[in-house]
Here is the input.
Amino acid sequence: MTRYVALLRGVNVGTTRLAMADLRRIVADLGHEDVRTYLQSGNVAFGSTVRDAEKLAAGIARALTDELALTVPVLVRSGRELAAIAGGNPYADREDDPTRLLVAFLATAPEKSSVDALAVPGGENVSFTVTGREVFLHYVDGGYGRSKFTNAYLEKKLGVVATSRNWKSVRALAEMTAS
Here is the structure.
């Protein structure tokens, strides 16, 4: 049994509403075990014998559409991947405020040319590091809410689906999926 977390993009921010009880039920009904949600923003940890993260993501997305008529991008990471992410933030030793550190989880690794062209909008003090399917973000002068360097900006510039979580959430999800 492998522990995973499914990260749903854009849930309970804006118009896409999803009760976490429904999310837990849907994931459990797919045959996954020890299903737990974190906060109200579309984070669900679970155990599964399925070893294919893309298959897991597709199954959850399909069930959300079939049962609740929700079309929501779903990204899945294993507990091992989350542990590496939580232990590999290049900005963690520079910032005490977890609201200024985020991780953007990407559906796929972006093209190198897109990564090379990625730049922070003028006048903003944001540091970023793209590592595979994650972008580590450090909002030096403020939080994510006041920046133009957002999840939507990353999706547009990198050409891949993304969903972002603050550092406190990343660490909590890593703990929830630890073996």
